[in-house]
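User: Show me a protein chain along with its predicted structure.
Assistant: Here is one chain, sequence first, then structure tokens.
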Amino acid sequence: MRSPNRDTSVFSTSAIDLFASALGAFILLVMILFPYYRNAGSADSWSEVEDLMLKRRLAQGEIENLLADNDQSQSDLERLQRINAGIQQSLSRLRNDLRDAKTQVAEVAVPEPAIEEIPEAKPTAVVNGVEFSILGLATEAKSFVIVVDMSGSMMAYSELMFSSVVDLLAPLTDENSFAIIGYQGAPAPYIHTFPRTNRLIKATPENLQQAREYASSLSQRFAGSTPTHQALLAALQFPAEAIILLSDGEPDSSPAGIIKDITSLNRYDRKEIHTVALGDYTENRALVLFLQTLARQNNGDFVGVSR
């Protein structure tokens, strides 16, 4: 009987032994060096690593919180956008309703109200003092300065000017005193006075006659512009209780400025300033407004005298 072949490969057994020995040596080295692995770096480095890991966890938490807040903000924004859209729709409906209402109102015919003309009451005559019934002025003043516009445009109303001055002088008696100022811009402002002494005189028959002659001579010297401001300043220098201004046109300077300045200068003396519009004054609204306001703010009256 033949015995089995028991020969073993020398190469195979040697390789296994080599690998086993190497593995065992590696395991042994790991076990020996493992306690020293953690201490391979410095303590500070390890602490920094732990700090970084902690900061990373905190940052991750903050990021999650920010993302949650962002989601909430997006939700709130969407809700506000829906509310705004609803408001815009309501405004659009209201605009349409308002447009329809305006259209309906415009289509409704509104009758014009009837205007009843009320006749202007005549001024009441005063018992004491002087009444200017023809020109519609009434005052209790005893002394007067009559200021006459002598600008070029007054040539068309020379007769009207003369008759108006005569009517103003007619009621005066020797209990009254007066003066007359004529003014014009030719081209610089120029002031004419009666009497030449620049003072008030008694209204005696002789002085009244001279005053009428002086008024008649004024119409022969009409020229230039209308320096009303300078004339009123000159009139305020007289110790008269009332000033009566006759004019057919707007002043050269600002009417509002004249009213403000004269009224301010007259606030203590409180002289009456009456105004008379001559000629076609109804066609000159600016003149009427100026004379009315000047008189109203200085205790006077306004009247118009046409041809």
